[in-house]
Amino acid sequence: VFIAQSRASGSHRDVEDEELTRIFVMIPKSYTEEDLREKFKMYGDIEYCSIIKNKTTGESKGLGYVRYLKPSQAARAIEECDRSYRAILAEPKNKSSESFEHDYYSNNTRQEPRGNTLPFCGQPEFCSFEKNESRIQESVSKRLSVVSQLPFIQEQLFALFDLVPGLEYCDVQRDPHTNSGYAVIQYSTAASAIYAKYKLHGFEYPPGNRLTVIFLEDGSDSSE
């Protein structure tokens, strides 16, 4: 498992406490916190488990958090747990959902608060976008172009973009005349592609090699 620290992150202690030990998982709505702990305790010492619930009905949203004592334990859980859990590193706990989703959509996009969750909800589409949302400046699609100064390794790039649910294919292309990397990524929904671009554009992989991620035309109606 490869874990990179954002240049915008704070001290090592803050990063370790808030970004590298807490994972976000999709779970059956029937799960209790005890069930969640039982499924993930094999990967390390758990500090706490929590299930995200509807504030009005108290019903589980099918999402949860698992906080480990060590980053290596969280990394092992992400790597080894069943793929159906779609485990990823969670956003820092001190970063409110309103703040995160505010950044995600842009400064002028309205978004309904969802509680302390990442911007997807366990459904085929993670989030709903206004059909006539004209404030998104670029044309979005389900397909992404990824460019870097270094060549890609198919398996590693696939694993990186597969952290966002809905990956359909990852096609790494090589230019024999240059040492640069180019790949085409496609997701099952535009919401997945938007989230992947938001999280991975400018990401340094490997360290010092910044990825450029842009939308590619996929023939669909971008107004959706």
From TrEMBL:
<dbReference type="InterPro" id="IPR000504">
    <property type="entry name" value="RRM_dom"/>
</dbReference>
<dbReference type="InterPro" id="IPR052462">
    <property type="entry name" value="SLIRP/GR-RBP-like"/>
</dbReference>
<dbReference type="InterPro" id="IPR034206">
    <property type="entry name" value="RBM45_RRM2"/>
</dbReference>
<keyword id="KW-0694">RNA-binding</keyword>
<protein>
    <submittedName>
        <fullName>RBM45 protein</fullName>
    </submittedName>
</protein>
<dbReference type="InterPro" id="IPR012677">
    <property type="entry name" value="Nucleotide-bd_a/b_plait_sf"/>
</dbReference>
<dbReference type="InterPro" id="IPR035979">
    <property type="entry name" value="RBD_domain_sf"/>
</dbReference>
<feature type="domain" description="RRM">
    <location>
        <begin position="21"/>
        <end position="95"/>
    </location>
</feature>
<dbReference type="InterPro" id="IPR034207">
    <property type="entry name" value="RBM45_RRM3"/>
</dbReference>
<dbReference type="Pfam" id="PF00076">
    <property type="entry name" value="RRM_1"/>
</dbReference>
<dbReference type="GO" id="GO:0003723">
    <property type="term" value="F:RNA binding"/>
</dbReference>
